Amino acid sequence: MKLHDIAVNNLRRRKGKVFFLVMGLLVGVAAVVALHTTTTILEEDIAHKMDEFGANIIVTPKSEGLSLTYGGLSLGGLSFDMKEISEADLEKIRTIENAANIRIVSPKVFGVFEKEGHKALVVGVDFNEELSLKKWWKITGDAPEKPNQILLGKEAAEWFQASPVPLLEIKGEPFKVAGVLESTGSQDDGLVFMNLPTSQKLFGKQGTIGMIEIAALCKNCPISEIVSQLSDKLPSAKVTAVQQVVEGRMDTLHSFRKFSLGISALVLLVGSMVVFVTMMASVNERTREIGIFSAIGFRRSHIMKIILLEAAAVSLMAGLTGYLMGIGVTRLLLTFLTDHMPKFNLDPLVALGAVFLAVLVGLLASLYPALTASRMDPSEALRTL
Fold first, then answer.
1. Is the pLDDT of residue 76 over 60?
2. Model pTM score
3. Strands 149-152 and 173-181, bridge-based pairing
């Protein structure tokens, strides 16, 4: 009879012990798979939502400045050698090495006009890009689609009483108010938004850009690299990362990962202890059997192999079942942790990893019981007969 046949027969005779072993290791593997899969999916979901939250890179014209102080008093500052961002520079942004990480490029042009004693800042934007950048905007009415249409912030609409009168004259040109922003609690509330080419023509800024807001996907690419590449491509511009936003995103993702690793290690430790205690109990119960094996000529290595083969078979079953249970627990957790069920597929690498981890933990936890069984004195063991 071969060693693996002996191991299989032992498992068949001790179905209760096998069930307890499988369940002890299965819970650990299922918990690890569920935590890893849930954390990975939540990381992707959070990263996607955060990358949609707004700009994390700001591009502005570069200028030299001089701070004026005299006698300890600040007299303000003086800007000179002001450089402009060309509209042609927008195409260069898409040519950087990490261009795949650039999700949204929203150029802006600024101008000021006064009406009825109120001054307002006009911002020329590409509405397709701007609406993609600011998904939290809620508009009463419609987003502008034509060159002669504008969008007003909540405060600007109140200043100019544009809601009941849907026409607003800016620098002698009539514009139709397509919609009004609901209050955002930001500077957007006091702004007037219009089509980018229209604003350039209206304020005499054809071919130039006042500022560029860029939303970059930062999960798998350091933001500093993107900033450096943009600075090389746009020497006449100052490229700045919104560090608090970027660091907040990365800290959130890292916290999820650390939590997952810590809980996984703890659950695996508990699972390995269950296997160890159960295998030790099994060895103590099989004293006579092990003594007979030794008496009829089985070597120590043979006895160790029998114990380890049993542990490997149990661990293999626990790994496969634990992976499937972990995926089921993941789906259940996501229904409580998210408003929608993120799309995810079964990952064969995770399945292989779960099986490998289960077998590794099972063998390591069974190593000492196997050594104990192999060192058992056959004469002492046979006295129990």
1. no
2. 0.56
3. parallel
